[in-house]
């Protein structure tokens, strides 16, 4: 079992930055592939970014590529999402998730563990 707790959300103006953190506990965190997803009101959950076990491979949704950066610190059992040049359309609840396999990293249903989410609101 892996427990995930997100933090770092908040209200920011368009063009601003936020850094989300996801602290993991339980089973060996470094064995898991980590992802970030988001869900805006009235919309389906969507993939944002993912990172491999050692952080050497990263994946991004086209909508955030060049603006967001995912990273991890296995010594701290934490994964981060640095979000720059934020836009109002980035407003959503952001969730981190963990999975044991590399396959289908952008598909939320393939992840085994989820956090409770943190709200990000970008004002125009």
What is the C-alpha radius of gyration, as a whole number of Å? 13 Å
Number of helices: 0
Give the CA-based shape.
globular
Biggest β-sheet, characterized?
Answer: 7 strands, mixed
Q: Classify the helix fraction into a percent range.
A: under 10%
- The overall strand count is 11
Low-confidence parts lasting 5 or more residues at pLDDT below 50?
none
Q: Strand percentage, roughly?
A: over 45%
User: Mean pLDDT across all residues, rounded?
Assistant: 94
Describe what is shown at a glance.
This protein has 124 residues and is mostly beta strands. The chain has strands at 2-7, 10-13, 18-26, 33-39, 46-51, 58-60, 68-73, 78-83, 92-99, 113-114, 118-123.
How would you describe the overall organization of this protein?
The structure is a single chain. By secondary structure, the chain is mostly beta strands. The strands form 2 sheets. Strands 2, 4, 5, 6, 9, 10 and 11 form a 7-stranded mixed sheet that branches. Strands 1-3-8-7 form a 4-stranded antiparallel sheet, with no helix packed on it. A hairpin with a 6-residue loop joins strand 4 and strand 5. The chain is 0% helix and 51% strand. It is built from no helices and 11 strands.
Labels describing this entry:
124 residues, four-stranded antiparallel β-sheet, mainly beta, single chain, 11 strands
């Amino acid at each position: 079992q892996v427990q995930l707790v997100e933090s770092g959300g908040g209200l920011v103006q368009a063009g601003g930055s936020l850094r989300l953190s996801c602290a993991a506990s339980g089973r060996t965190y470094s064995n898991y592939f980590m992802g970030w997803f988001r869900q805006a009101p009235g919309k389906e959950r969507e993939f944002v970014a993912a990172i491999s076990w050692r952080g050497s491979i990263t994946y991004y949704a086209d909508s955030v590529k060049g603006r967001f950066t995912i990273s991890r610190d296995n010594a701290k059992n934490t994964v981060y999402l640095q979000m720059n040049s934020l836009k109002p359309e980035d407003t959503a609840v952001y969730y981190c998730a963990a999975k044991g396999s590399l396959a289908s990293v952008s598909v939320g249903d393939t992840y085994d563990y989820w956090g409770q989410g943190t709200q990000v609101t970008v004002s125009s």
